[in-house]
Amino acid sequence: MQMSPALACLVLGLAFVFGEGSTVHHPPSYVAHLASDFGVRVFQQVAQASKDRNVVFSPYGVASVLAMLQLTTGGETRQQIQAAMGFKIDDKGMAPALRHLYKELLGPWNKDEISTTDAIFVQRDLKLVQGFMPHFFRLFRSTVKQVDFSEAERARFIINDWVKTHTKAEFTTPDGHYYDILELPYHGNTLSMFIAAPYEKQVPLSALTNILSAQLISHWKGNMTKLPRLLVLPKFSLETEVDLRKPLENLGMTDMFRQFQADFTSLSNQEPLHVAQALQKVKIEVNESGTVASSSTAVIVSARMAPEEIIMDRPFLFVVRHNPTGTVLFLGQVMEP
């Protein structure tokens, strides 16, 4: 992997690092909807390219790091990102609302543990615009990470180690309680996993993926009925590293990847910068104990009453959602468990 000092490298973990919020002008649910909606649209692009392959993705992660990236850009580059995301990070109250959403997700009142983060990496000797780093930290309670990309192997080790250190979360399920078609609440009820698949086996999963949205997922949650069920769900463990360049370009964010069109003058005036890589690496494992996420034997889970049997023996979508805010943390497709 060779990168010139002029290239900025964007790397995604699972979500973002924002700190304590100040005055909030937008409720967390509003910001969560915007972030989730954008992230789901990116997932649709990823799923289309993946076709019949298993995929796990973090809508929240890509939305949060692109929100950070807005602050480093200017001109047409920033406008493209803002148009694709549907909001401007410099709108009054938006950055504090994102910080407050982060606080809602990671607060001690959540009974399910969530550990999330993301980062932007740039060349170590790049001279940043005066005052940029304090301003960036004030908004996001995070810093732009500086790495020497001329030492490619060391840079790769540093980034991979950062991802490994900062992306781990574990959720457990209560025994014997499930919701129809299909919500599986985790132990603390802060998080839920939704399983969705076309009822008729001959209908491809893409028929559902193509109409997916944050609003539709919220509709699932709002229309659940609690019923006893016997769920037969395959164990699955997925690890995906997604190159986000093509999906982001398909949504109109093209300039940031082009060396002489990208505008990162809000970050540095030293030399032309562009995004060299936009990557997301996510791992998720689902078994009888629950879910382990860090960024095939059937499991049979019984309800207490004689239940209707639901056998998930066809391709399906899964969603891990933070219920208090509606944030979509993880989203994936299982084509071959």
Give your account of this protein's structure:
This protein has a single domain (7-334), classed as Antithrombin, subunit I, domain 2 (Antithrombin, Chain I, domain 2). Helix content is 31%, strand content 26%. It contains nine helices and 15 strands. β6 and β7 (191-196) form a beta hairpin. It starts with 6 loop residues before the first strand and ends with a strand.
Order of helices and strands: EHEHHHEHEHEEEHHEEHEEEEEE
Range of strand content: 25-35%
Count up the helices.
9
**CATH third-level topology:** Antithrombin, Chain I, domain 2
- Poorly predicted runs are 1-24, 168-180, 294-307
Q: Give the overall silhouette.
A: globular
> So, CATH architecture?
2-Layer Sandwich
Structural class: alpha+beta
**How many runs of DSSP E, i.e. beta strands?**
15
- The helix fraction, in percent, is 25-40%
Query: Major sheet: size, sense and barrel closure?
Result: 7 strands, mixed
Radius of gyration of CA atoms, rounded to a whole number: 20 Å
CATH class: Alpha Beta
How many domains? The number is 1
Head-to-tail CA distance between termini: 32 Å
